[in-house]
Amino acid sequence: MRVLLDESIPIDLVRDLPELDAQTVIGVGWAGLKNGALLRQAAGQFDVLITMDKNLQFQQNLAAHTIAVVLIRARSNRISDLRRLVPQILAGVAKSSPGTICVVGPWVSKR
User: Fold this and answer.
1) Residue-wise DSSP of 74-108
2) pLDDT at 88 over 60
3) Could you give the C-alpha distances from 28 to 38, 42, 44, 49, in angstroms and in order?
4) Could you read off the pLDDT of 69-87 as tens digits, one per residue?
5) CB 50, CB 101: distance < 8 Å
6) How far is CA 60 from the centre of its chain?
7) Which one of 17, 18, 38, 105 is most buried, by most CB atoms within 10 A?
8) Residue pLDDT, tens place only, 96-106
């Protein structure tokens, strides 16, 4: 599974996801792309975008894209906070499908 980590995710998290073919937005040279442009650029090259941008789902029509999104809801984007969520992140990636969003983390609303 080819996974792209958004700029909101520390690049060190790549090492915690060895099961995935993970790269960073910075590593592929797409730093600074706005959400819509990033989704279009990543589609076809990546299966999943991992982000902490909670507004992405409201700003973009995810169903129009051929990439899935895993949204991490955590206390912060510090690597120590995210490392605790690696099992949830992996599960979210595994169950993702194109054009959908999977929200993971302890700060997910249970409504």
Assistant:
1) -S-S-HHHHHTTHHHHHHHHHT--TT-EEEESTT-
2) yes
3) 11, 10, 14, 13
4) 999 999 999 999 999 999 9
5) no
6) 14
7) 38
8) 999 999 999 98
Separation of alpha carbons 30 and 19, rounded Å: 23
Tokens representing residue 3 in the block: 């996974």
User: pLDDT of 1-33, one tens digit each?
Assistant: 999 999 999 999 999 999 999 999 999 999 999
> Greater confidence, 35 or 27?
27
Cα dihedral 9, 12, 15, 19, rounded to 10, equals: 0
Q: Where are the domains of the chain?
A: 2-104
25-47 average pLDDT score? 92
End-to-end CA gap in the chain: 30
What H or E segment, with its residue span, contains residue 37? helix 35-42
**Six token digits for residue 15:** 């090492």
Strands lying side by side in the sheet with 48-51: 21-24, 2-5, 48-51, 68-72, 101-104
